[in-house]
Amino acid sequence: MASLRSKKIFFILSIVVPFLLYCFYYYGMMIKNAPYKFTEFDSIVFKYGDGDSLKNTYNSKTGDYQFVNAHDSIIHKHLKLNDNDLVILHRKAADLGFWDFPAHIDADSLTPGFDKAPKYYIQFNYKRKSKTVLYNAAYNDNAKLKEAADLLIKQIQTRLEEAEKR
Fold this sequence. Notes:
The chain is an alpha+beta fold and 166 residues long. The chain folds into 2 domains: 1-33; 38-165, 2-Layer Sandwich (Mago nashi protein), CATH 3.30.1560. The chain has 3 helices and 7 strands; from the N terminus they run αββββαβββα. It has a 7-stranded mixed sheet with strand order 4-3-2-1-6-7-5, with helices on one face. β2 and β3 form a beta hairpin. It is elongated. The relative contact order is 0.15. The model has no long low-confidence stretch (mean pLDDT 82).
């Protein structure tokens, strides 16, 4: 008869050790292949406007910022977001689940104000991947998705306003 100690050793070697090795392998690959890491962050492209005209644009890679002022004039500026701003935006996008957003968050064409509602184009670019979302503010199907998209847009606009004040 095998002793209690040898049974424990057999159990550990046959069940626990393979399980731990599998966990390290599986989660190691998950972390290694995470598609959206800030270390691989490249740029943000943000466009918005009423209806189908996305006249207001920002590209963090080039620093080009174009917007329509209160007098309906198009203003061109060079605006750079610092690394802190970009980290905040990256983390906010991750917190809100931006990577799981559908590519088009669009309202039904029968929704009142569908044509004139503000539209937003958000693109986060990384070395290996990018994520693009086109959002119509008249969207009302999923309240949580609408709220998350609105929060991300507000955060981007806040970062741009703060950078403009600097």
